[in-house]
Amino acid sequence: MSTPVKVAVTGAAGQIGYSLLFRIASGALLGPDTPIELRLLEITPALKALEGVVMELDDCAFPTLANVVIGDDPEQVFDGVNAAMLVGAMPRKEGMDRADLLAANGRIFTGQGAALGKVAADDVKILVTGNPANTNALIAKSNAPDIPAERFNALTRLDHNRALSMLAKHLEVAVTDVEGLAIWGNHDDSMYPDLYNTRVNGKVAADLVDEAWITDTYIPTVATRGGAIIKARGLSSAASAANATIDHMRDWMLGTDGKVVSMSVPSDGSYGVEEGLISSFPCTVADGQYSIVQGLELNEFSKERIAASVARLASERDQVRELGLIG
Ligand SMILES: NC(=O)C1=CN([C@@H]2O[C@H](COP(=O)(O)OP(=O)(O)OC[C@H]3O[C@@H](n4cnc5c(N)ncnc54)[C@H](O)[C@@H]3O)[C@@H](O)[C@H]2O)C=CC1
Ligand SMILES: O=C([O-])CC(=O)C(=O)O
Fold first, then answer.
1. Within a domain: residue 132?
2. What is the pLDDT of residues 260-288, one digit of tens each?
3. Is residue 1 scored above 70 in pLDDT?
4. Which residues bind substrate (predicted)?
């Protein structure tokens, strides 16, 4: 077998970790022929629980799992990693906004960004799931100036999958009948799923539904789905978040074959989104490089919604600057 791909997961003893690790180890990330070395970071008090999770990983006898390293020192755990999934952070509770977590979680990403900058492999790809994901990714990026900015992404694939599933259900079609759907902006309740550039069996999705359904039902339901899960489960989304984290990283590493997916990436100024902010865009991936889909027509409604969500990103950026977490 070839040299294992080193995949770091932070917050590995948490609830997303408990779904994520077993899927990565079983080949869901890179397929059955690519051996994986898992490098798992936790805070010191959670290492004992993590040891238990590693015992369970052993007990699965996954053919693709070559090795597991655990620890509480980011520089040791991130040494030589090719992919880093930064999940470890406090989840919100009922009644909180994701931005309420900025002060509590933001600091985690200064140290982890700096450690990745020192010891990760040259080809490292970094995906932040821990909330508020877009701004935490911005913090990590700002603290790792030697890693190219485009290697820092944040997760809006869960929102994408929710949007896809809800649209397909409403129209009574298969999710595979939907193309071009994407989330724009921040992973908060201002996010915008654009149905004007989405096609369902070749037809524009917005033409197949009532305009009132888009504004009053669809957009708010997609945008507040995380809160609805917390209310129902008493805990935030875990299995679906793990699934989306794998979807994003797999597509980034292996390509999308022309398919459009939602990725939060550092803006290059496309569509008027302020350069440097980590915002969700429609993207495709080829040869390990993503591209923001260009040339889409945005109507006035879409432009307003995207601008409102990007304003939230700018405000979070200003807050973390005030907290001294970015330069
Ligand atoms: N972007 C998205 O779509 C989604 C993001 N999330 C976010 O993912 C994060 C994790 O969620 P859960 O796994 O449910 O939380 P959890 O509380 O079950 O697990 C978090 C784990 O992170 C660990 N941790 C805390 N600080 C750490 C550090 N400095 N280094 C390494 N590990 C650390 C904790 O010990 C804990 O084991 C939360 O911030 C949550 O809001 C959750 C769902 C979707
Ligand atoms: O809503 C939350 O706090 C967890 C999350 O990000 C999601 O499920 O989208």
1. yes
2. 999 999 999 999 999 999 999 999 999 99
3. no
4. 92, 98, 131, 162
Complex ipTM: 0.99
* CATH number of domain containing 121: 3.40.50.720
In whole angstroms, give the CA distance from residue 267 to residue 105: 23
Determine if ligand 1 sits within 6 Å of the CB of residue 129. Answer: yes
- Residue scoring higher pLDDT (97 or 177): 177
Give me the pLDDT at residue 99, please: 86
Atom of ligand 2 nearest to the CA of 96: 3
> Does 14 carry a binding-site annotation?
yes
- 130 and 233 within one domain: no
Between CA 228 and CA 58 the distance in angstroms is 35
| Domain coverage including residue 291 | 156-317
248 is catalytic: no
How many domains, the chain? 2
What is the C-alpha to C-alpha distance for residues 62 and 274, in angstroms, rounded to an integer? 44
In a domain, 242, yes or no: yes
